[in-house]
Amino acid sequence: MYTTLPLPGHNSTTNSTCTKNDEFKYPLYSAVFSIVFVVGLITNVVAIYIFTCSLKLRNETTTYMMNLVVSDLLFVCTLPLRVFYFINQNWPFGSTLCKVSVSLFYTNMYGSMFFLTCISVDRFLAIVYPFRSKTLRTKRNAKIVCAAIWVLVLSGSLPTGFMLDSTSNENQNNTTYCFENFSSKQWKAHLSKVVIFIEIVGFFIPLLLNVFCSIMVLQTLRRPQTISRGGKLNKKKILRMIFVHICIFCFCFIPYNVNLVFYALVRTKTLVGCFKESVVRTIYPIALCIARKSQGSSACDVKFSEALQSETSSNLHFSLRTLKAKVFHNESSV
User: Fold this and answer.
1) Which ranges does the record mark as transmembrane (predicted)?
2) What is the CATH number of the domain that holds 106?
3) Per the structure, how many domains does the chain have?
4) pTM of the prediction?
5) Average pLDDT in the chain
6) What is the number of other CB atoms lying within 10 angstroms of the CB of residue 38?
């Protein structure tokens, strides 16, 4: 599951003495987004089939994963328009569709982070506090959490997308831009505030939650009393999921979100200098493509592996219940 905050433009508000060197982004975006569209469409359709038709056990985890699939599909459906734009470098589909496409980018990027974080927190509660969290980890509560996430993400992404206007260049055959060439005034008045908000709420908080939950789960799994013959297979899957989650955030989200801060500083002229601008503009498209391409494939791995794990999660719970029963039995016989 792609672009993001407005991409660097040709004739934006940067220093006229600085030479733009990011034209490579157009063939790069076209190739990467084409691949992401094909792979994302196939894998998410397969994921929907698994969750709705072949998955026997449906719990709070599958609720989060279904919402993750919906978030991915919403964005994947806009990718053909983006590929067309980056090939032709002109947006003929109207301002409204441009705004919707920008909004869906934010919805997918940060909605995916939130839903992946929900899966991580749910796993943390199930493994570290399997008995005390039983009443908390329900499908009803998961649906409430998902609804709250959609409200939060859409309340941020829709105003952002619809407050931005596509721009035209009269000197280049009335070329209309989308996803880029936003003015320095827009960046200073609105986009810089958006960056601050999404970096704190949409990135740093989910990152901290994922790291904390992963560390706590790993510590719990290392305890001998949590390992039994019936839970070994489940433990391997849990460790695999932790590894996938950490990879997503470290190799996909961190480079893009860190560069996004510097990109905002360049566009608002807080960070000046041709060399700095050149570095930021060069890294931005590469980090974005890594985030979208890697996120799509890794998130699919999460969906399928978590689906399998949800089928066998009862093994670990059964083992923990058995262990607890044995402990209580031994204590009562002393």
Assistant:
1) 28-52, 64-87, 109-132, 144-164, 194-221, 242-266
2) 1.20.1070.10
3) 1
4) 0.78
5) 76
6) 12
